[in-house]
Design goal:
This protein has 822 residues and is of the alpha+beta class.
Length: 822
């Protein structure tokens, strides 16, 4: 349970011998250092604490009788107090509960009232301020931090207080880290734009959605035996929209917490084992990620591989079959037979055990039967589906757009029935008699056989023709690009359009110089900013790389990969058009003494985790395993919010599902990031990218380049320097001075250990990227790394090199080296 305790921000306290346990705080009693305010039954207590190894102090609430204390609420999370300065919590004038540092009030309940007030801690963990009539005028439950206790609410309320309308929003906000309670960028709360449902967000981006509210059940929330039966209380009216949970066993201690690793977790205290037991975690896997399969698509897991299917493969088809075949599901599915919006030409098909679609834009009525709901939807041809999310009440939901983020639920997980609008011909499919069905099947089988013979004949003929006149690389690029343009997913731009967007490739718009040409900033006529990679006419390199990126990598879709918007091939001109990244590349920050101060530790750690997530997608979740082969700081671009996006896939290679490694005579990449087996023997695999990632992690932590690093007298290179510090227990000395003040030692040391594990000499000793994600997410202690071999470019000369060509790097003037390996 030690790992879980760290993950949830559990804290150790040292009590003073003079500590006092208070039952109330009033104008005659105050809470000072070492004192605690205890709930009547001794379940919770409030006091001052330091999170982990931090020296900052906070006022918080935790379970009293548990040794591994877990903080469930923090008052001054935005205003930490360093050192051992005196702190006092007391009632001041006008009934305000205030936290004072010397004479300065750094936090308060901020509710003014007349008469005397008293502060109490209730047995449900709610800190309340009450007046002389025992009426609650302020409560901590109205200001949750990262933890939802039973009885706490998510949602919003408008309340009339002292002749003015007060609006409250209840939602969870993660800690920045296990040692910093300040609000992070993750939130869990109610989306009330349509019918209410809870959403996990990172900034404005939705990570996970639990489905429409119901008093009876929630999709994906299982029942874990009699002791862990959840019940829910939902309120939807003009003044309040709220959701709360409870557990039937009142004696069981339980919480729901939002951690800084993008997970919402439910925990229960098991007295038998004296430890916290995780009940469930969301998202549970790739299929829980928001809208992963887009419109009318549903996600499945088979042999640990994620894939999408249409909701009903008889009535829905992929919008773009070619993209669907290579695991690009961003286009979603569409109806096989389009709707006509004619009276009597359409009806509804019922789908059961479904996680209902996103209700952000849905219409709802709280007093309409299912029959009335169906009639009203049928009368409006823009109504795409209807449902009742709660069988215990008369609720009607209508969707007027494509159904997003639907999911066929597991048995017993609380799925609902949804009725989807279909053309009448699709409705008749089930009504056909058995005789007609046999005839249809016979016709279909004969048709398939005939088609198979025709296709086989055509393929043989096409192969002979292709052997006689195989297209050039440029022709193949053009044909592939035109095919993509026909799919309306990959646009083929005219040279005039791109020249106009970049002011005729003005030097003022130059962003950088890549290995095969220049990169320019541009703006299309619709106002969209773009980055344009222009292949150099004088370079003999880059045609294969250009073709590779257009045909293969453009199909990849992930938040941590740069998106290709299209290309241009006219005469000698070959251009790639990308989404524009305003903060350019990672190396322009971490290796620049001025810019590096803009990347505090939290941003750096998020960048590390984002790169890791992108590699998991390339190595595991895309249809083919993609090996980048040139992962480095210059190929990590940063968007407006400093989120990392892996770029420059010109050197990437794809593997089949059963392939694990390959050999090449053309070794390409960047010295310092290349794994030993690749640089020396031309053997590459997903573990080659893992090696590059390890070097990159250590660069992000230290702010030092692995190439050009100046070693000490007993060291030869950057990796040996890192190992020496780690082996001597001085890992924190590696941290870049520009972020040393904001770093969290546990996260830093964990990152360094992960980096060293990734640069192990033997590929088999390196973790895969899924395990890297777990280690970075504080899920268990990483294993101890072995001493690396300290391979660097000075050792390449042992290879049987027949020719070496030096080419400028992608955007950072590092060297990409091409050599023939033995």
């Amino acid at each position: 349970m030690e790992g879980a305790a760290i993950l949830l921000g559990c804290l150790l306290f040292v009590y003073k011998s003079t500590a006092v346990e208070l039952d109330t705080i009033s104008d005659t009693s105050v809470l000072t250092d070492g004192d605690t305010l205890v709930s009547p039954a001794g379940i919770f207590e409030l006091g001052f604490f330091k999170p982990g190894s931090s020296e900052n102090r906070y006022l918080g609430i935790w379970y009293k009788k548990i040794a591994d204390r877990m903080v469930v609420w923090v008052a001054n999370r935005d205003s930490p107090l360093p050192g051992a300065s005196p702190l006092v919590l007391k009632i001041v004038h006008q009934g305000i509960l205030g936290l004072f540092h010397n004479i300065s009030m750094i936090w308060s309940s901020n509710i003014i009232t007349s008469g005397n007030t008293t502060a109490r801690l209730q047995d449900n963990g709610n800190l309340v301020v009450i007046n002389q009539q025992e009426k609650v005028i302020w409560q901590s439950f109205d200001y949750p931090t990262d933890t939802l206790l039973r009885g706490m609410k998510l949602g919003s309320e408008e309340t009339l207080r002292r002749d003015y309308l007060r609006g409250i929003t209840w939602r969870l906000t993660s800690w920045k880290s296990s040692q910093d309670p300040a609000p992070g960028d993750l939130t869990w709360g109610a989306d009330t734009l349509g019918y209410p449902e809870n959403k996990l967000k990172q900034g404005a981006s939705i990570i996970f959605r639990d489905g429409p509210w119901s008093n009876e059940r929630f999709v994906g929330v299982y029942i874990f035996g009699k002791r862990l039966t959840f019940t829910y209380n939902v309120i939807i009216n003009e003044s309040e929209v709220s959701f709360a949970y409870n557990i039937e066993d009142d004696s069981l201690l339980s919480i729901i917490t939002l951690n800084s690793s993008m997970h919402l977790e439910s925990w229960a205290w098991l007295e038998e084992s004296r430890g916290w037991q995780q009940i469930v975690q969301f998202p549970r896997g790739p299929c829980d990620m928001y809208n992963i399969c887009n419109a009318y698509g549903t996600c499945k897991i088979n042999m640990n591989q994620q894939f999408c299917t249409c909701l009903d493969e008889k009535r829905f088809v992929p919008k773009n079959q070619k993209d669907w075949d290579i695991a690009d599901w961003s286009g979603g599915c569409i109806r096989r037979t389009p709707l006509e919006c004619k009276k009597g030409s359409e009806g509804f098909i019922k789908y059961s055990n479904v996680k209902l679609a996103d209700t952000e834009n849905a219409w709802f009525n709280l007093s309409m039967t299912l029959e009335e709901c169906a009639t009203k939807c049928l009368e409006n041809c823009t109504c795409m589906a209807y449902a009742n999310p709660d069988d215990t009440q008369s609720i009607c939901l209508h969707w007027f757009n494509d159904l997003l983020d639907i999911q066929i639920s597991h048995e017993g997980s609380g799925g609902s029935d949804i009725f989807v609008r279909m053309a009448s011909s699709e409705l008749d499919f089930k009504k056909q008699g058995r005789g007609s069905t046999k005839i249809i099947l016979l016709v279909v089988i004969l048709g398939v056989l005939l088609m198979g013979v025709s296709i086989t004949t055509w393929l043989c003929y096409a192969r002979r023709k292709s052997n006689q006149a195989k297209p050039t690389g440029e022709e193949e690029i053009l044909m592939a690009s035109k095919s993509q343009e026909e799919d309306m997913e990959q646009k083929l731009f005219s040279f005039f359009t791109i020249a106009n967007a970049t002011a005729n490739f003005s030097p003022d718009n130059k962003l950088g110089e890549g290995g095969f040409g220049l990169v320019y900033k541009g703006m299309l006529e619709d106002g969209q900013e773009i980055a344009v990679k222009r292949l150099s006419k004088n370079s003999s390199q880059g045609h294969v790389e250009f073709q590779n990126e257009v045909i293969c990598i453009s199909k990849l879709q992930h938040r941590n990969l740069v998106k290709i918007l299209g290309c241009c091939i006219e005469g000698d001109e070959k251009l790639l058009i990308y989404e524009y990244m305003p903060n350019k590349s990672l190396d322009s920050f971490i290796f620049d003494t001025t810019q590096s101060v803009l990347l505090d530790w939290t941003k750096r750690f998020n960048i590390i985790k984002g790169i890791a997530r992108g590699l998991v997608y390339l190595h595991q979740d895309s249809r083919l395993r993609i090996i980048h082969r040139d992962l480095k700081a210059g190929n990590i671009l940063l968007d407006h919010d400093m989120n990392p996006k892996i770029s420059d896939f010109g050197l990437a290679r794809s593997f089949g599902g059963n392939e694990t490694q390959a050999n090449t005579e053309r070794v390409v990449g960047t010295y310092g990031y290349m794994s030993p087996e690749y640089a020396l023997d031309g053997i590459f695999s997903i573990k080659s990218d893992v090696f590059s990632f390890g070097v990159l992690v250590l660069e992000i932590v230290s702010g030092k380049r692995n190439r050009g690093f100046v070693p000490s007298y007993n060291e030869h290179n950057f990796l040996e320097h890192v190992w020496s510090l780690y082996n001597e227990g001085r890992s924190m000395d590696l941290v870049d001075s520009s972020c040393a003040g904001s770093c969290h030692s546990t996260e830093v040391i964990r990152s360094i250990k992960v980096g060293l594990l990734c640069v192990q000499h033997n590929a088999g000793d390196r973790p895969n990227m899924s395990y890297v994600i777990q280690m970075l997410g504080d899920e268990g202690e990483p294993p101890q790394p072995k001493q690396p071999l300290f391979f660097m470019e000075r050792q390449v000369h042992v290879a049987n090199v027949s020719s070496i060509t030096y080419i400028e790097g992608s955007t950072n003037n590092c060297t990409i080296t091409e050599l023939d390996a033995r």
